[in-house]
């Protein structure tokens, strides 16, 4: 059961990797808000980190990569960097975790080294959770503030897209994965300390026996006197 938790953490880590890649690549961070009486609902606009897509009714969607990074708002510029860092962190966490599980051949039978590797993997997952949660929450906050801003035209208002919801779900998966690994590390460490403590007590008892001198019990003179009587 304990080793199954480590395998579960690996599986969740793969889901987290796929999620971060999907969130980074999807253009549905911002989508058209169909509000107002004059807005044509047959047109749809998507805005992502790398491209913008436009579609009309009975027309295939057309996407175009941004010509310059500087034309993007600050939250999308920061989201690009955060999501790229998230992908790198999740890949590193997967590799480190694979070396730190109990069934791996890394570090041989040295459980102390494996525990350290497992803890590093859990910390990487927690950092990737933050680097995924921050950009999606930042962009969603910007969308909501602009949506309720009366000075912004209805045609310029956007709604939260699917990529942001996937980003929230992915950040939750990364958080759970990191917690599982750190819990397993703490249990394995406490078990290792118990084994070390028992071994130390056994060595201490054996040392006491080696230092002690055996004194055979001899009968008293009164006892010998009673035997003759």
From TrEMBL:
Keyword Cell membrane listed: yes
Localization: Cell junction, Tight junction; Cell membrane
Entries under Pfam families matching the protein: PMP22_Claudin
InterPro entries assigned: Claudin, Claudin_CS, PMP22/EMP/MP20/Claudin
Membrane-protein topology: Multi-pass membrane protein
Stretches assigned to coiled coil: none
PROSITE patterns linked: CLAUDIN
Keyword Transcription: no
GO CC terms of this entry: bicellular tight junction; plasma membrane
Keywords: Cell junction, Cell membrane, Membrane, Tight junction, Transmembrane, Transmembrane helix
Primary localization: other
GO MF: structural molecule activity
Function of the protein: Claudins function as major constituents of the tight junction complexes that regulate the permeability of epithelia.
Family stated for the protein in its record: Belongs to the claudin family.
The name this protein goes by in its record: Claudin
């Amino acid at each position: 059961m304990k080793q199954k938790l480590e395998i579960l953490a690996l599986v969740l880590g793969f889901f987290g990797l796929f999620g971060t890649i999907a969130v980074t690549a999807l253009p549905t961070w911002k989508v058209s808000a169909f509000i107002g009486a004059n807005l044509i609902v047959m047109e749809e606009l998507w805005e992502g980190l790398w491209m913008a897509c436009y579609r009309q009714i009975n027309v295939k969607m057309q996407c175009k990569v941004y010509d310059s990074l500087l034309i993007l708002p600050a939250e999308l510029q920061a989201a690009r960097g955060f999501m790229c860092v998230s992908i790198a962190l999740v890949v590193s966490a997967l590799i480190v975790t694979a070396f730190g599980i109990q069934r791996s051949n890394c570090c041989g039978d040295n459980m102390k080294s494996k525990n350290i590797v497992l803890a590093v993997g859990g910390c990487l997952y927690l950092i990737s959770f933050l680097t995924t949660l921050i950009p999606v929450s930042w962009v969603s906050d910007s969308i909501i503030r602009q949506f309720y801003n009366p000075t912004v035209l209805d045609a310029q208002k956007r709604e939260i897209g699917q990529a942001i919801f996937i980003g929230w779900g992915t950040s939750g998966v990364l958080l759970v994965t990191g917690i599982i690994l750190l819990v397993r590390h703490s249990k394995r460490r406490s078990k290792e300390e118990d084994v070390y403590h028992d071994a130390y007590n056994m060595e201490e008892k054996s040392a006491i026996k080696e230092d002690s001198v055996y004194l055979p019990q001899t009968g008293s003179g009164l006892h010998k006197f009673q035997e003759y009587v």
